[in-house]
Amino acid sequence: MTAKVIDGKAFAANVRGQVATHVARLKADHGIQPGLAVVLVGEDPASKVYVKNKHASTIEVGMNSFEHRLPAETGEAELLALIDQLNADPAVHGILVQLPLPGHLNSELVINRIDPAKDVDGFHISNVGLLGTGQKSMVPCTPLGCLMMLRDHHGKLAGLNAVVVGRSNIVGKPMAQLLLGDSCTVTIAHSRTKDLAEVCRRADILVAAVGRPEMITGDMVRPGATVIDVGINRIERDGKAKLVGDVHYESAAVVAGAITPVPGGVGPMTIACLLANTLTACCRANGLAEPEGLTA
Length: 296
Ligand code: GUN
Known about the structure:
By secondary structure, the protein is α/β, with parallel strands linked by helices. It folds into two domains: about 90 residues, 3-Layer(aba) Sandwich (Rossmann fold); about 130 residues, NAD(P)-binding Rossmann-like Domain (Rossmann fold). It is built from ten helices and eleven strands. Helix 6 packs parallel to helix 7 and helix 6 crosses helix 10. The chain is globular. The chain starts with a strand and ends in an 11-residue tail after the last helix. The structure holds guanine. The site of guanine has 7 residues, from strand 4.
């Protein structure tokens, strides 16, 4: 058996298309244009690429993009003042502070300064608490993208055994909350879980988000399971730079029922969900109905 490949690139293009349609309608019917502000502090090369891609995608769906690039030595007070200014700006519906921040800045303090209603990353402690208690919140983009693909593939997720490998605040923990919200039986495993292979083999849905290249191998996958690979690891093989996931694709794909590839799986969904969250934030800010199918 060979798994169905879940095409995240096509899925993300579809989500961006839906967002663009909603944005056009907001403009035509209400004269409203959603706006996303992205703050980049310093010169981290990977972060610069992410921010550039976010800007291009934001413009492409018809939203306003506000980019704020600050020097690496920017002080905390200055950064907090910028966030206050964006919180107060009615043209800004979403605020994203690109992580990681330079070492002298306290990320938690900075993130928690963002108005939770504009926190399109879903990292503010209020949004974490709202998600954990099953209330309406802003949901982190990567797990939201995974949930959308899982719902599309399975229809209802209720009763399925889900194993999330990885316990990060950005992916593992919110992913587990979202799967619980859809009535899965959820296990959070991690690099120190005892007999990880046996735990993984119980999964109807296996989400790999540990950040270890090709750690999840085919023998750890239940036949027919859906495997979602959140990992993006740059490795060198045979003298060549290569991008691999947390799943050993070749061995997992012959056992799984469905699998996301790397690249072209979860990755493209993250920016698409950032745009979906910005649209959702804009609708909420204006007392309008939320876009269907684009929220948790
Ligand atoms: N850096 C890497 N991933 C992310 C993300 O999802 N959000 C933010 N703000 N920074 C990141």
